[in-house]
Amino acid sequence: MKQIAPRIVLDEKVQAGKPVIAGTRVPVAVILGVLAAGETMERIMSEYRIQREDILAAIAYAASLVSGEDIREVS
Fold first, then answer.
1. Counting Cβ atoms within 10 Å, is residue 13 exposed (0-12), middle (13-18) or buried (19+)?
2. In a domain, 2, yes or no
3. N or C: the chain end with fewer CB closer than 10 Å?
4. Are 32 and 58 in contact (CB under 8 A)?
5. CA–CA separation, 19 and 43 (whole Å)
6. 30, 33, 38, 54, 66 from 24: Cα distances, Å
7. Is residue 13 in a domain?
8. How confident is the model at residue 31 (pLDDT cuts 50, 70, 90)?
């Protein structure tokens, strides 16, 4: 297991090595997707049994990734 950001880890044995919330099998992409769909933090915390800090860590991780990207149009 490798920590790649606060509260975010990679483990080849968990979710095919995709970024997940540390101590869980919850992918960062899932958290971001349900947030984008309009789900509340409270519901996400209850549904996935994670903490508010985990959700904020997922957002911060995503922000750090896009800050270094080339700008592309999304359809």
1. exposed
2. no
3. C
4. yes
5. 21
6. 12, 17, 22, 10, 24
7. no
8. very high
Residue span of the structural domain in which 31 resides:
27-69
Please indicate, yes or no, whether the overall pTM of this predicted structure exceeds 0.85.
yes
Rounded CA-CA distance 54/39 in Å is 15
Report if residue 1 sits inside a domain: no
- According to DSSP, the residues that pair with 9 across neighbouring strands are 3, 20
Tell me, yes or no, whether 10 lies in a domain.
Answer: no
DSSP 3-state assignment of 50? coil
Q: What's phi and psi for 20, nearest 5 deg? A: -130, 165
Averaged pLDDT of the chain: 93
